[in-house]
């Protein structure tokens, strides 16, 4: 019966091509608008490290005082003295300090120009904490951190430029005139949102190609290439900067269990209380230890534009469905005589429901195909509304293709429910008598 009802539906749609076209366009445009904005929202609100997001925690600590804070929220980053003190305490399974730097990669070939690359100064725990995927070798060790060793991890794209994609572990890399030993090569890794460096990237960035030990970067006085906030002038020189209350470092900790997370929070609060008793702080401890998704939510990583546009586009889809309901109602009720004859010949209301819902589903499929085409066009134009780092995340992948078709079909069936119900209520006797 399905094929029979499908044939009836297609024949009916061909009889009214203008009406059919209007319904397909209404479904297609409504679905395309909602799926285009959903693709952006999905990309910006996803869990960047789902396998461990509940175990990774960012630490915040108020070293400025309540009068310099917004809504009582501690600063986004930590000062050097606080970050290094908390790292030395080893109160977590793994911990790492991170800050962005800029380095010039000097090729061995003197005829080639230096390559400016984004980089991070970080710790050995960075790589196992964040499940960074390695293609060659491994990260450096905790012993390398303690020795302030000149070691480096590079990304695949840089390895391709410098070593033609070959084996480079153990080779030397010249960064700003200093030699580093390569310990590993990773994939071009940049989880989106870039959760471990939200203060400097807003959550969206192409990632780094070079990673060097934090202690070695401090020894070489490599400046912070990201945001730097100070409540007072730190004074001249690197040493004064390190001793200042300027905030520029991110501290992340891996805490696998709730008990460990609670214990760590208590330690951070105790540390802040110690600073208060020592006279450094004149205010009560104000600390936050948040997991990945909570941190992203508090930092408002999902652009407001994507949230607003998603709501507006869903409203537009609802308007399109209302129009489709009206068109389907007009179309189905014009066929009351046909329905009456079918009912008189023995068709049940269930049969009428099946026939007209299948016809509506056919409209949904056609609307879904049109919606897919328009969604593809919409994704190409996302850059006109959103910043480039966000716009490039919106893609028409198989999941979105399937979702677009499903939404179109479901939307058309929802729109057809009331007109179909009205059609099923047609009384055969009235139609036979009137005709």
TrEMBL record:
Coiled coil: none annotated. This is Peptide ABC transporter permease. Pfam families: FtsX (PF02687), MacB_PCD (PF12704). InterPro entries: ABC3_permease_C (IPR003838), MacB_PCD (IPR025857), Macrolide_Exporter_MacB (IPR050250). Residues 20-218 form the MacB-like periplasmic core domain. GO terms for cellular component: plasma membrane. Residues 311-428 form the ABC3 transporter permease C-terminal domain. Its main location: membrane. GO terms for molecular function: transmembrane transporter activity. Keywords: Cell membrane, Membrane, Transmembrane, Transmembrane helix. Transmembrane segments: none annotated. It is a multi-pass membrane protein. It is found in: Cell membrane.
């Amino acid at each position: 019966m399905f094929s029979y009802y499908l044939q009836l539906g297609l024949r009916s749609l061909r009889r009214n091509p203008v009406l059919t076209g209007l319904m397909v366009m209404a479904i297609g445009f409504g679905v395309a608008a909602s799926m285009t904005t959903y693709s952006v929202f999905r990309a910006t609100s996803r869990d960047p490290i789902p396998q461990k997001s509940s175990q990774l925690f960012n630490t915040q600590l108020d070293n400025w005082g309540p009068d310099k804070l917004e809504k009582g929220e501690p600063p986004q980053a930590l000062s050097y003295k606080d970050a290094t003190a908390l790292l030395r305490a080893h109160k977590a399974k793994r911990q790492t300090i991170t800050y962005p730097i800029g380095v010039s990669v000097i090729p061995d070939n003197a005829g080639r120009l230096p390559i400016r690359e984004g980089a991070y100064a970080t710790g050995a725990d960075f790589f196992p904490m964040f499940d960074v995927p390695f293609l060659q070798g491994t990260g450096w060790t905790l012993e390398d951190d303690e020795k302030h060793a000149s070691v480096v991890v590079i990304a695949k794209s840089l390895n391709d430029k410098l070593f033609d994609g070959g084996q480079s572990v153990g080779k030397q890399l010249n960064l700003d005139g200093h030699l580093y030993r390569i310990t590993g090569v990773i994939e071009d890794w940049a989880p989106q949102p870039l959760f471990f460096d939200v203060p400097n990237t807003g959550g969206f960035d192409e990632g780094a190609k070079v990673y060097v030990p934090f202690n070695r970067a401090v020894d070489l006085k490599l400046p912070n290439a990201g945001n730097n906030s100070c409540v007072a002038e730190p004074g001249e020189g690197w040493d004064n900067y390190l001793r200042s209350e300027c905030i520029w470092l991110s501290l992340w900790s891996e805490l696998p269990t709730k008990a460990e997370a609670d214990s760590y929070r208590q330690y951070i609060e105790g540390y802040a209380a110690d600073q208060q008793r020592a006279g450094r702080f004149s205010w009560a401890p104000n600390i936050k230890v948040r997991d990945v998704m909570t941190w992203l939510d508090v930092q408002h990583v999902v652009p407001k534009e994507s949230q607003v546009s998603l709501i507006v586009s869903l409203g537009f889809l609802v308007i399109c469905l209302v129009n489709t309901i009206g068109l389907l109602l007009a179309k189905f009720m014009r066929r009351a005589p046909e329905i009456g004859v079918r009912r008189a010949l023995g068709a049940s209301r269930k049969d009428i429901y099946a026939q007209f819902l299948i016809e509506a589903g056919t409209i949904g499929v056609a609307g879904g195909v049109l919606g897919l085409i328009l969604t593809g066009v919409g994704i190409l134009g996302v850059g006109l509304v959103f910043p480039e780092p966000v716009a490039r995340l919106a893609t028409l992948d198989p999941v979105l293709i399937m979702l677009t078709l499903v939404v179109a079909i479901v939307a058309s069936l929802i729109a057809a429910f009331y007109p179909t119900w009205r059609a099923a209520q047609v009384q055969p006797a009235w139609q036979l008598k009137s005709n």
